[in-house]
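Incident log, structure service

09:12 report received: a user says their structure output differs between two submissions of the same chain.
09:20 pulled the input from the user's history:
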Amino acid sequence: MDGNKIKIKLIGSPICTPEKHKVIVRALGLTKMNQVVERPDTPGFRGMVKKVPYLLALVK
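09:34 re-ran on a clean worker, output below:
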C-alpha cells in the first residue's frame, strides 16, 4: 500500500453545512474550491470521502 494514493477534489462549498462536515473537509486538507489533494488510499480516508459525497469527488 505504499504507492497507493487517491486524489480528492473539493467540489462544493462547506459554508452552510453541519459542523461535522466542515471538520471532515478541513481534516482532509481542503481549504479552497476545486482544490485537489493527494492522500493515502486507506479505509479511513475513503470513509471520510463517503461521509460528504456532495462536497467531495475522487479524481483520476
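09:41 both user submissions now match this output. Likely a transient worker issue. Closing.
09:42 reviewer note: Strands lie at 5-10, 36-40, 56-59. The chain is about 30% helix and 25% strand.
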